[in-house]
Structures are given as C-alpha cells and as structure tokens.
Design brief:
The chain is of the alpha+beta class. Strand 6 and strand 7 form a beta hairpin. It is rod-shaped, with a radius of gyration of 70 Å.
C-alpha cells in the first residue's frame, strides 16, 4: 500500500499540531512549578499606626525566597528589613515591618538559592509609598494639675456699732438714784439724820458712859462725907 504525497503531508501536519500542543502543555505546567520573579508582588500597608510592606508570593513550588527591602534616597539604598517567604498557588501574603515614609521609593530584592532555582532579582517596578503615612493615634496631652483654689480667709468680725462699756466703767458702782428727801441744812446737828448712816448710837454710848462716871463720882463723894461726919 503506497502513501501519497497528500497523505504524507497530512500526517506530518497532525504530528506537528500534537507536538506543539504537548509543548504548550509542558511549558505551562513547567512555568506553574517554576519559581520566578513574576511570582512576587509588593505593596505598602498599615497595621494600626505602624507601616508595613506586604509581599505576595504566588509561587506554587513551595520554594523559600529571601526578601530584602531597601529605602532609596537619591542614589543611596539603605537596607531597612529582610525576611524569608514561601508562596502558594493561591498566593501567600507576608507582612514586613517597615515604618515606611510617605512619598518614598523602596526597592525589594528577591533572592532564591535552592536545588532547582537560582536567581537574584528586584521586583519591578519599585514600590512608591502613598502621599500620607499611617495615621498616628493622637496621644492624650498631659494636663497640668489644677492648683487648689485658696479658700477666702475668715475676716475678723466687724466691731459692733454699739460701743462696749470699758472695764472701769462696768466695775464702778452705779450712780445712786436721786432721793426725793430734802438734804439737811448746813450746820444742823447729826441728830437730825436718820438711817444707818446717823451717829445716834455713838452719842448714846458716850452719854451712858458719862452717866456711869457721874454716878460713881456722886457715890464716892457721899461716902467720903459720911465718913467725916462720923469722925
């Protein structure tokens, strides 16, 4: 059985299509299992009031990659953080603590050194942070302790409008009320006075004493005369 030229060309065409299909399938599967720089992505985020750079790794080969973050300032690069990451087909997000600055460029280096994969490249393009950094929580401003308000001092009680009588005035005897009785005329005898202040008792005592003395004198005089008459 002979093969015509047309049949041969058809067979070659079929084989070519099958080979190409197999190459495509193998290429896709190989790319899916390969660790490459295209599997990595970086973005700036915040965790509360602190900045973070989140690395997303969609490498399904479970290869460990070493990530280094550099801050770019003109032509100078300063290393600010580094971490190891492992990816997955669904994409693994790994936060890197970087308190990034607003409107600043960061370059991220990805280094892989495993049994099957070896490369050292940077994620492109470089990461440029937002115009505003993570919002810092306002710390309460310490207030100075309030000074105690001095209480008004108790003032001395005002002096009474009514004058207080002095001690000498209070201790002095009260003035005697005016008597309606007529005062004795000048030159009158003390016998005209009545009451506790008169000298009647004294005068009576003196008169009594004079009477006793006079009586005694009379008695002795009479006795002397009798004696003479008897002699």
């Amino acid at each position: 059985m002979s093969i015509t030229h047309r049949g041969a060309r058809r067979s070659v065409r079929i084989l070519g299509v099958a080979s190409a299909s197999a190459a495509i399938v193998l290429g896709v599967s190989g790319s899916a299992l390969a660790c490459q720089i295209g599997d990595f992505k970086a973005e700036a985020g915040c965790a509360g009031d602190k900045g973070q750079i989140v690395i997303t790794d969609t490498d399904s080969s479970n290869t460990t990659a070493h990530i280094t973050v550099f801050e770019k300032n003109d032509a100078v690069e300063t290393k600010v953080a580094e971490v190891d990451v492992r990816g997955s087909a669904q994409g693994t997000k790994t936060p890197v603590d970087v308190d990034w600055k607003a409107k600043t460029t960061y370059s991220i280096e990805v280094k892989v050194d495993s049994g099957r994969f070896h490369f050292d490249q940077y994620i492109k393009p470089d990461l440029t942070t937002p115009a505003e950094a993570c919002k810092k929580e306002d710390s309460p401003t310490p207030t100075a302790p309030s000074k105690p308000t001095p209480s008004p001092s108790k003032s001395a009680p005002a002096e009474s409008a009514t004058p207080t009588p002095s001690a000498s005035a209070s201790s002095s005897a009260p003035a005697s009320a005016p008597s309606n009785a007529p005062s004795p005329a000048a030159g009158d005898s003390n016998l005209a006075e009545t009451g506790a202040n008169s000298n009647t008792g004294l005068i009576a005592g003196v008169a009594g004493a004079l009477v006793v003395v006079g009586g005694g004198a009379v008695y002795f005089g009479m006795r002397r005369r009798g004696a003479r008459g008897n002699g």
